[in-house]
């Protein structure tokens, strides 16, 4: 018979039990406190469960392919590394395109026609850093990649950054850097809860709608990831340009130049040089055919001549191809999707010039 039943029947057992256990009221108080904590924490737990169920950033579970719709903007560094690990054993890649998101202007199929190597992989990352490129090359070495050809797409931002990011979208995959996996995963959980991101994400999943506000934090356009080469393309944007190029560029406010051409401040210091030398040593170990492209930026800024000079002294002038500043690529709005990324037709022409026959004047600057 329970203590409650004893009280109802008027028995003395309950009274004795109370005398024998003077702490009982405290236990009940603790229970009520726990219940309150659970009630207050239940919304948090419910939201946390949705994170583990939906895995919005695709970093919790193993994915063999990333070509499906990615509502939450993904960590490109993680996708690139996972895609490589998914495929490298059956496709022993020996040529690699490295750099930031501007590498979308260079497709492996275009590059392979010039290098003769069909085993090419696009190993880029959003807002890639010099540190990220160095760590990726070491990671590829650890996985016994041949490193026959390497194409590095760079700019002043890439050359400036020599450590990891804190942002969940930009930080390096810990499998390439040896950083904490827990800290990497925790950054995505924090991002899910910050600024009610979870609400925007769940709203879009429930309604299928993208409002102008949602487009700032979620991926509304179709992004295609090649599951073998990891090439990233924007088919929706390309189709829109093809249907009405005049209308596309007329309405795109981000393609109205308001800045005059300028020269970036020099960014290569002692740590940058140390990492550049380490990258050069990787190439030397593998007898790599490597090339650097300085991107043609929409606002026509020149990479600082001092940085160009250091790159040329470190790697050899014939390996550095500077397309920054004002030139035939940067003067045409139609070469860009917006003010940050140029289209594959630009990359194809740059590749043609770089890999043209020795002595061809087109192999250096435009």
How would you describe what is shown here?
- The chain has a domain of 229 residues: Rossmann fold.
- The radius of gyration is 28 Å and the shape is globular.
- The strands form two sheets. A five-stranded parallel beta sheet has the order 2-1-3-6-7.
- Helices cover 45% and strands 8% of the residues.
- The N terminus and C terminus are likely disordered.
- α6 packs parallel to α13, α11 packs across α12 and α13 runs parallel beside α14.
- It is built from 15 helices and seven strands.
- With 366 residues, the chain is α/β, with parallel strands linked by helices.
Low-pLDDT windows of residues? 1-27, 359-366
Query: How far apart are the first and last residues' alpha carbons, in Å?
Result: 93 Å
User: Treating each run of at least 4 consecutive H or I residues as one helix, how many helices?
Assistant: 15
Main sheet summary: 5 strands, parallel
- Secondary-structure-based class equals alpha/beta
Throw out a few tags for this protein.
five-stranded parallel beta sheet; 7 strands; Rossmann fold; disordered N terminus; 366 residues; alpha/beta; globular
Summed up, what is this model?
This protein is α/β, with parallel strands linked by helices and 366 residues long.
Question: Which SSEs are present, and which pair or pack?
Answer:
Blueprint: H1 3-8, H2 13-20, H3 24-54, H4 76-87, E1 95-99, H5 108-115, E2 120-124, H6 130-142, E3 149-154, H7 156-160, H8 174-177, H9 181-193, H10 197-207, E4 224-225, E5 232-233, H11 235-243, H12 245-251, H13 270-286, E6 289-294, H14 305-315, E7 320-322, H15 344-354
Parallel strand pairs: 1-2, 1-3, 3-6, 6-7
Antiparallel strand pairs: 4-5
Helix pairs in contact: 6-13, 11-12, 13-14
């Amino acid at each position: 018979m329970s203590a409650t039943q004893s009280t109802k029947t008027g028995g003395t057992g309950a009274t004795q039990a109370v005398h024998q256990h003077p702490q009982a009221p405290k236990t009940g108080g603790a229970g009520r406190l726990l219940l309150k904590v659970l009630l207050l924490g239940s919304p948090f737990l419910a939201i946390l469960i949705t994170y583990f169920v939906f895995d919005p950033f695709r970093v919790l579970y193993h994915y063999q392919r990333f070509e499906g719709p990615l509502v939450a903007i993904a960590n490109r560094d993680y996708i690139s590394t996972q895609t490589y690990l998914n495929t490298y054993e059956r496709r022993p890649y020996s040529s690699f395109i490295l750099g930031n998101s501007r590498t979308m202007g260079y497709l492996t199929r275009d590059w392979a026609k010039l290098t003769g190597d069909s085993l090419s992989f696009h190993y880029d990352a959003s807002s890639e850093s010099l540190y990220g490129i160095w760590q990726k090359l070491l990671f590829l070495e650890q996985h016994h990649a041949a490193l026959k050809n390497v194409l590095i797409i760079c700019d002043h931002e890439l050359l400036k950054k020599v450590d990891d990011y804190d942002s969940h979208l930009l930080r390096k995959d810990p499998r390439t850097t040896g950083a904490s996996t827990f800290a990497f995963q925790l950054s995505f959980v924090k991002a899910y809860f910050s600024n009610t991101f979870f609400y925007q994400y769940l709203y879009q999943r429930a309604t299928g709608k993208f409002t102008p506000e949602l487009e700032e934090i979620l991926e509304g356009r179709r992004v295609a990831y090649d599951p073998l080469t990891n090439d990233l393309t924007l088919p929706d944007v390309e189709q829109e340009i093809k249907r009405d190029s005049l209308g596309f560029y007329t309405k795109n406010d981000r393609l109205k130049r308001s800045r005059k051409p300028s020269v970036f401040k020099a960014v290569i210091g002692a740590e940058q040089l140390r990492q550049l030398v380490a990258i050069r040593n990787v190439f030397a170990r593998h007898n790599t055919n490597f090339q650097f492209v300085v991107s043609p930026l929409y606002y026509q800024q020149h990479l600082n001549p001092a940085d160009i000079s250091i790159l040329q002294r470190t790697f050899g002038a014939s390996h550095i191809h500077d397309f920054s500043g004002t030139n035939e690529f940067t003067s045409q709005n139609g070469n860009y999707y917006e003010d940050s990324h140029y289209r594959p037709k630009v990359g194809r022409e740059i590749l043609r010039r770089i890999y043209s026959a020795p002595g061809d004047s087109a192999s250096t600057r435009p």
